[in-house]
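Hi C.,

You asked whether I'd gotten around to modeling the 95-residue construct. I have! Everything is below, sequence then structure, no commentary in between.
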Amino acid sequence: MKTGNILIEERRATLEDIAKFFTDLNQLLSLYKLSVFPLTCEQIAKAANLRKKYNLTFYDSHHAASAMLYDSKIISTDNTYNSVIGLKRINPYTL
């Protein structure tokens, strides 16, 4: 999630907007018993290697690295992930 890029009514989000967003997100995650994995040094290193090897964007490389470190599957409509060896892309429209 690109917190720093959140736009609200064509303006940058305030710190209060960001805090409220994550408070609400936390409640939603709790409601559905979902969790967020922490960002680790291992994930950052893997993302950098994937970014170089597969010419991924910054965010795509982090999403791919996280998926690969946890279960090797990513749910996405983005075909970019198909080139990453060891990563299985699941199209959400097939679920």
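If it helps when you're writing up: The two ends are 22 Å apart (CA to CA).

Thanks,
B.
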